[in-house]
Amino acid sequence: MDLFQHDEDLRQKGFTRIAGIDEAGRGPLAGPVVAAAVVLSEDIKIKGLRDSKKVPEKEREPLFFEIINSSLDIGIGIVGHEEIDTLNILRATKLAMKYAIEDLSTSPDLLIIDALSLPLIPIKQLPLIQGDNKSAAVAAASIIAKFLRDRIMLEYHRQYPHYNFDKHKGYSTREHLDMLRLYGPCPIHRKSFHRVMSLELPF
């Protein structure tokens, strides 16, 4: 199904202000989880818009700015490594999504959320498995969240250059695990994650 047609079909059912919600950073061993809420303008189609995981890094920045310029509203939510360790990653992800929704200038009348529901948010919701492959608003949110989180990790790379966060962005690549073995965890590593604190880190 066409990403834009999916959202247009929902507008035809009476939902005039649809926010797509997605996150970046549930899987990494370090850094924050970042969520975005995006309300796209219904009369603009963004060429090449798709799930951020399918977009090469060099293409994300132009898409990011096109989404910024083509959106009616964007909200951002960030939950850091300390809260992730306190809450667990699922609860931290939902909190970041809550912050992103609250960051919108006007409340949406429908939330399309990638694979999750937010019971404490009093707005009608459509949890959508692989939502970033089905909804233009969710795909846009995935690009915004991914781009912003990558920028945060580049800043962390400047603080902790030994870990090469500029390359793997905190994900559990072989290189990252090798650096963990060599140097141990740094302040932004998620201490509640077994692969961070285990003395033996299996590949």
What proportion strand?
Answer: 15-25%
The CATH topology turns out to be Nucleotidyltransferase, domain 5
As laid out across the biggest beta sheet, the strand order is 3-2-1-4-5
Count of DSSP strands: 5
User: Order of helices and strands, N to C?
Assistant: HEEHEHHEEHHHH
Q: What percentage of residues falls in helices of 4 or more residues?
A: 40-55%
Can you say what the CATH homologous superfamily is?
Answer: Ribonuclease H-like superfamily/Ribonuclease H
Number of helical regions: 8
Structural class: alpha/beta
Using the alpha-carbon principal axes, give the shape: globular
| Global Rg | 17 Å
Low-confidence region ranges: none
Mean of the pLDDT scores?
Answer: 94
Architecture (CATH level 2) name: 2-Layer Sandwich
Count of discrete domains: 1
Biggest sheet character? 5 strands, mixed
For the record, what CATH class applies? Alpha Beta
The end-to-end span amounts to 37 Å
Features:
203 residues; alpha/beta; Nucleotidyltransferase, domain 5; five-stranded mixed β-sheet; 8 helices; 5 strands
What does this structure look like?
This protein has 203 residues and is of the alpha/beta class. The chain has a single domain (3-158), classed as 2-Layer Sandwich (Nucleotidyltransferase, domain 5). The chain has helices at residues 3-12, 57-70, 81-87, 89-102, 136-159, 165-168, 174-183, 194-197, and strands at 18-24, 33-40, 71-79, 110-114, 125-128. It has a five-stranded mixed β-sheet with strand order 3-2-1-4-5. Helix 2 (57-70) crosses helix 5 (136-159) and helix 3 crosses helix 4 (89-102).
